[in-house]
Amino acid sequence: xxxxxxxxxxxxxxxxYIVSIGFLAYAFYKAKKTxxxxxxxxxxxxxxxxxxxxxxxxxxxxxxSLHFVGGALAAILMGPWLGIASIFLVLLVQCLVxxxxxxxxxxxxxxxxxxxxxxxxxxCYKAACKWGGGDLAKALGAFLGGWLGIALxxxxxxxxxxxxxxxxxGWTVTVPIMGGWHLVLGIVEGIITSSVVLYIAKRAPExxxxxxx
Amino acid sequence: xxSKNALILIVVLVxxxxxxxxxxADAVGYHExxxxxxxxxxxxxxxxxxxxxPLLDYTVPGLPPEVGxxxxxxxxxxxxxxxxxxxxxxxxGK
Lengths: 213, 94
Known about the structure:
By secondary structure, chain A is mainly α.
């Protein structure tokens, strides 16, 4: 889902940068108010873990490929603001050090994976926990968060590259492709997110920020 | 405790990552939905023309792709942990 250089026109690149910088500034402002050394350690571990997990590409013979994104998981574990900060750190290092994701597309990649995926994941988990506090609700919330977070991030990505070309109706091609595939591939993200959240909920429930408030 | 387990998991993930990120990706042909959408619109990836890093796509000059992928993984993790440490120090200094 990392958009490379060359896919976005200047208007889309600039507008997604502006939106993402606004969210990042607010996220760092909110995170700074409540940041403790423990939370900073958690942020470091989650960011490093997401970076490592994203290196595992899963090629599907005859079809397409995917890798774990982790925005929903980061949000459930740390809340949306630290979640945004952690995925942003991952995307920044991937872009600047490995050129995975274009520098002109960093704003769009942050918007899709560090903002949309994070917020959708967090809101799904919170909604499920309100509905019921048991393991089933947690598993369902984390699954939906991982799944829908990826699907909506994919749809946003489809709009960004669809609106960016010289073809005025490019989004009618890209949105169904991106949305359709990510609705299917997102199921894997949902299963991984749900499994990790359930594991941590049993071993160390105090680490799950989305259950605290 | 969870951090120690998490760090072990991270190391294991990086060590097995070439199986998924290099060997299987080459064998099957890594092809994300984004590539499919870009092909439909005729968009071209200009990463190679615009590149600034010797570690492009998790490769390390002089190393075989599988080993380079692991080294690149640890470099990325070290930078992320270093950035977090730097942010921590900046904030505690205030």
